[in-house]
Specification:
The protein has 350 residues and is α/β, with parallel strands linked by helices. 27% of the residues lie in helices and 21% in strands. The chain has helices at 2-12, 57-62, 88-104, 120-130, 153-164, 254-261, 279-285, 323-334, 340-349, and strands at residues 27-34, 40-41, 50-51, 72-81, 108-114, 137-140, 174-178, 181-184, 189-190, 199-200, 208-210, 215-217, 242-246, 266-271, 292-297, 315-317. It is globular, with a radius of gyration of 23 Å.
Length: 350
């Protein structure tokens, strides 16, 4: 009896209250495209051998019931593929759908896109240039499949919804949220094949962080994006073809010649150092007629400045955009102009 008397107060004591949903929850749309965050492996230890794009967006949301405490979410499946299979058609679909959601549903706080990490930075940057609203668009994924031990997807998704619902995220362009870190679409890149801290912005750093108590921003992007962007893809079904070539010791100019002969509209050179190319490459590029050439760098960080020996050939400096993002900006620029001076202006402003 004495034992029960001691135990009774423990059984009847108040338990910690669960977090309460706000009375008027913000509306957040989740557009799902697949990727590792929606992936499944044969076992919880299948961290590298798994199939991406298996679970649906609704499946992902149902595994994180805490989301319902933060926002009223509406889920829509756009695709369900590994991000290596994302196409320009997917980009156009996402951009048009996001613009439609913001226009037709003015109470929407923000949009979250679940996406594979391999090409996430490219999708994010394309949307950064083509979404016409200042409300948050947040891309999120994971480095471990949903079936893995210590899967990082659920918390990443929760944090992405928190960020999309946050008024502080408004006006900062398209964002990437993983590993509690908030990055700008223009600056961020995947830097590691397997580590959960893979997304970094080598030159400029994170915009902020998602912590348990609040979302904190410490800087804002300064280059043109979203509402300040001049690009409009609402009536486009495709983009001008632009390819990337990687520079290295003793390159074969036949690759450049083949692209020029095939009628490619633009070439981005992933040059050495500050966007340099060999004499062999320079001579081949000098023969380009009607093809716009952009010089980026294979180094992973730093600016590519203009140079007196390249400018007369029409080779445009990419500033600090990496090759894959330079390609996106060049494709969009070519929807407006083929004038090298105008394209230089675009690279200076974006």
């Amino acid at each position: 009896m004495r034992f029960l008397a001691l135990l009774l107060p423990l059984l009847t004591c108040s338990l910690p209250a669960l977090p309460q949903a706000p009375p008027n929850k913000p509306v957040v749309w989740i557009l799902s495209t697949g990727g590792t965050i929606a992936g499944q492996g044969a076992s919880s230890l299948s961290l590298t051998e798994y199939k991406g794009g298996v679970l649906t967006g609704l499946d992902l949301v149902q595994t994180v019931p805490e989301i319902a405490l933060i926002a009223d979410v509406k889920v829509e499946q756009i695709a369900n593929v590994p991000s290596s299979n994302i196409t320009i058609a997917h980009w156009l679909t996402l951009s048009k759908r996001i613009n439609q959601i913001f226009s037709e549903h003015p109470t929407t706080a923000g949009v979250v896109i679940t996406h594979g990490t391999n090409t996430m930075e490219e999708t994010a940057y394309f949307l950064n240039l083509t979404v016409k609203h200042d409300r948050p668009v947040v891309l999120v994924g994971s480095m471990r499949p949903a079936t893995a031990i210590s899967a990082d997807g659920p918390l990443n998704l929760l944090n992405a919804v928190r960020t999309a619902a946050s008024p502080a995220a408004r006006g900062k362009g398209v964002l990437v949220v993983l590993n509690d870190e908030i990055s700008a679409a223009r600056d961020v890149t995947k830097t590691s094949t397997l580590r959960v801290e893979t997304f970094r912005s080598p030159d400029l750093g994170y915009l902020g962080f998602v912590d348990g108590d609040k979302i904190s921003f410490y800087r804002s992007p300064t280059r043109r994006h979203t509402t300040a962007s001049e690009f409009d893809v609402s009536n486009l079904q495709e983009l001008p073809p632009v390819e990337i070539l990687y520079s290295y010791v003793q390159p074969n100019p036949v690759l450049i010649e083949a692209l020029l002969a095939n009628g490619v509209k633009g070439i981005v050179m992933a040059g050495t150092g500050a966007g340099l190319v060999s004499t062999v490459e320079k001579n081949a590029l000098a023969k380009a007629k009607g093809t716009v050439i952009v010089r980026s760098s294979r180094t992973g960080s730093g600016r590519v400045p203009a140079r007196e020996d390249y400018d007369p050939l029409g080779l445009i400096a990419a500033d600090n955009l990496n090759p894959q993002k330079s390609r996106i900006l060049l494709m969009l620029a070519l929807t407006k102009t083929t004038n090298p001076a105008e394209i230089r202006r675009i690279f200076d402003e974006y």
